[in-house]
Amino acid sequence: MSTVNLSAEQVRSTIERARGTALTLGIVGLIVWATGLFTHRDLAFQGYHFAYVFWAGLGIGCLGMALLVHVVRGKWGQPLVRIFEAGAQTLVPFMIIFFVPILLGMHSIFEWSHPEAVRNDPIIAFKAKYYLNLPFFLVRMALYFALWGYLTYLMVRSSSQQDAAQDPIEAEFISRQRMTPAALGIPFYVLAVTFFSVDMSMSLQPHWFSTMYGFIFATGFGLTAMALATLLVLLWREVPPYKGLVHFEFRRDWGNLLFTMTVFWSYVSFSQLLIIYSGNLPEETSFYLRRNMGGWHPVSWLIVIFHFFVPFFLLLAPRTKRIPRQLILGAVILLAIRVIEMFWEIKPAFSEVFSISLYDVAAFVGLGGLWFWAMFSNLLKRPLLPQNEPRLQEVPHAH
Known about the structure:
mainly alpha, single chain
């Protein structure tokens, strides 16, 4: 058995308190949001849609990062992997249950769900015939969550078997055996995320399209998950089982991975902008035109500054990885700008003029509170660190 200290009563009590707070915030937030169903129905469903895409995306990102950790078997991922697995477990059945309001509010959210829009718009009519129709939409959603749920089940089952292994050889065999389904699952995972982003976000403006959109969302989801896991472990670094574990080598790898994902997200996002700008076709430029008028232009610049320039220079500096508080700051900045970026992706489809409604905030806080409650509940069901894991016992060394 592993010699890593797993007597984590202090951090577990912290998680228990956070879980209770999250549940309270979740219930209160959703109650406030529900009042909008009687007064501002469209606004309420549109706010819920934004919240759902963000929090479901965080769970999807956690699954993607868990698959990555199990494929590369890097030492850097071991302190984070239980958070990734716990976040991935929120997808089924939690996010499936909370998909119901999306179905109830289809007409308030998706233009293509209106029969008159299909009749009067030849482009929407063509897309509705082959893709943008409710029956096929439901089939696709069922396939996405079935795939994500199955991959999560395989990863969690295998890591639990490794926890229960009787000797190091058996534990190592189970760990290596897990690489195959994780590696095979990643291409299907990326395809599912791509189509999920098309269905839930790009189809809000059914005349617009981009072949890079799925990569932007997949990278963004993974970046959000990585920033959250890094933040939590750094906040818990002074209590068992993390005390004495979160050394510079780990922090350097986490900071470098956050830096890499930030740069890749920026590269793909800028490439999409550059290609659309160069083509200058009305059906493509509509996305950016809407987000550069009516008060949305400052938000666009906010994303440029805090989703690229600030984290680029902050995470590039070696000092950031040496000082935990600076890496915490970097993770907080990334999490905050990820919320703003997702709001910028979705909200302009509903409102050409910049606005934040009470129901946007209430749905975000409510669904987010319940997401954290579910994630923390999953996290407490197993040891906070993988057991029988020799990579956690290795002496830190420089590459």
